[in-house]
């Protein structure tokens, strides 16, 4: 599909410098741009490329001024990066805008499918499921009994959503995600074995959430595991039973949150971080990657780091000393010999 500079400028509320009728049909990086491509310039270190790119249209900030003539048509906007992101989202939606139910899908007669929805091949929709308007469910997904999925959500291939879970509006769930599998609940018995504790709760995911590939979110033992509005979860994350993740918190890949911990709003948790169970993390806390959280963090906005994480500045000072331990050890031994001599 082709778009003119005029059409794009109207979408972005931008100002055209150059040929308003020039057309593009693909997106590219500015250094790789060729005829028919749309690019953007937001970072100053890429400015030299605007004079050499073959791209037909380049989105730039309103503050940009050129030293020499530029072959490309420019569209000036307040924030080039944000505007290009807006176009990427629009492009992505246009790339996949199918509607209807595949003949190879398996739908229970007692499920409800909203307008303009898409259900891909070999997807199974169970009894009592409610799917909102404009939902896109790709092939090979499993949607268990009484699941509810809100409007405009996208579920990519090979996702499993167990019974009774609730998915909000405008969510993106990537391939391999499992929502609502049993929490890790076992009780030791007299035979030195473990009895399984039935997990009868569910998972509730709010609006505008994105969940990365192969992330798992366990159902609650009782009640609900809760993911707040606007939360972004990376790939390969484990969220255990009865965990609560506050609104607009982001968690990077390979992190794990153990059962019944409560993560505040607007937190940032680095990759490979482990949060122990039954803890409380205050709002706006930042946890550096590969940290271990063994106790609650009650101070709003606290920044921590370390295998047994503590204040990040103290950790960095300690790490400087740690690196010098061999020299300190040799110095101590030298002093000991001098004292004995």
Rg: 26 Å
Number of strands: 40
What value does the average pLDDT take?
95
Give the count of helical stretches. 4
Share of helix, binned: 10-25%
CATH uppermost class of the largest domain: Mainly Beta
Q: Which parts are unreliable, with pLDDT below 50 for 5 consecutive residues or more?
A: none
Integer tally of domains? 2
Helix-strand category: alpha/beta
Categorize the overall geometry. flat
By CATH, the architecture of the largest domain is named: 3 Solenoid
Strand order across the largest sheet:
8-11-14-17-20-25-28-31-34-37-39-40
Query: Which percent band covers the strand fraction?
Result: 25-35%
CATH superfamily of the largest domain: Hexapeptide repeat proteins
User: Distance N terminus to C terminus?
Assistant: 87 Å
Largest sheet: 12 strands, mixed
Structure, explained:
By secondary structure, the chain is α/β, with parallel strands linked by helices. The chain folds into two domains: 3-95, Udp-n-acetylmuramoylalanyl-d-glutamate--2,6- Diaminopimelate Ligase, Chain: A, domain 1 (3-Layer(aba) Sandwich), CATH 3.40.1390.10; 102-315, UDP N-Acetylglucosamine Acyltransferase, domain 1 (3 Solenoid), CATH 2.160.10. 15% of the residues lie in helices and 29% in strands. The protein is built from four helices and 40 strands. The chain has a twelve-stranded mixed β-sheet, covered by helices on one side. The protein has a ten-stranded parallel β-sheet with strand order 9-12-15-18-21-26-29-32-35-38, with no helix packed on it. Strands 10-13-16-19-24-27-30-33-36 form a nine-stranded parallel β-sheet, with no helix packed on it. The longest helix is centred in the N-terminal third of the chain and has 16 residues, at 80-95.
């Amino acid at each position: 599909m082709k778009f003119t500079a005029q059409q794009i400028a109207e979408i972005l509320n931008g100002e055209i410098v150059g040929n308003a009728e020039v057309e593009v049909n693909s997106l590219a990086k500015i250094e790789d741009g060729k005829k028919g491509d749309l690019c953007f310039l937001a970072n100053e270190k890429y400015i030299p490329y605007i004079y050499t790119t073959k791209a037909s249209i380049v989105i730039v900030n309103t503050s940009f001024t050129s030293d020499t003539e530029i072959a490309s048509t420019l569209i000036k906007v307040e924030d080039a990066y944000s505007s290009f992101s807006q176009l990427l989202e629009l492009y992505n939606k246009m790339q996949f805008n199918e509607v209807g139910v595949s003949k190879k899908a398996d739908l229970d007669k007692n499920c409800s499918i909203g307008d303009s929805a898409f259900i891909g091949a070999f997807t199974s929709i169970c009894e009592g499921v409610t799917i909102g308007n404009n939902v896109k469910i790709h092939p090979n997904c499993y949607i268990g009994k009484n699941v509810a999925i809100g409007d405009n959500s996208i579920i990519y291939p090979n996702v499993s959503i167990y019974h009774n879970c609730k998915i909000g509006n405008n969510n993106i769930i990537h391939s391999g995600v499992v929502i609502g599998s049993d929490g890790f609940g076992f009780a030791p018995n007299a035979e030195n074995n473990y009895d399984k504790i039935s997990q009868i709760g569910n998972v509730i995911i709010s609006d505008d959430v994105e969940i990365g590939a192969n992330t798992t979110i366990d159902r609650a033992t009782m009640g609900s595991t809760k993911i707040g509005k606007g939360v972004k979860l990376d790939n390969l994350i484990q969220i255990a039973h009865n965990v609560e993740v506050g609104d607009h918190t982001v968690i990077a890949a390979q992190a794990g949150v153990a059962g019944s911990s409560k993560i505040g709003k607007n937190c940032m948790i680095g990759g490979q971080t482990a949060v122990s169970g039954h803890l409380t993390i205050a709002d706006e806390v930042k946890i550096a990657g590969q940290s271990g959280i063994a106790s609650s963090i009650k101070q709003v906005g606290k920044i921590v780091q370390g295998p047994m994480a503590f204040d990040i500045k103290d950790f960095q000072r300690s790490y400087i000393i740690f690196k010098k331990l061999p020299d300190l050890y040799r110095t101590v031994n030298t002093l000991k010999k001098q004292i004995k001599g």
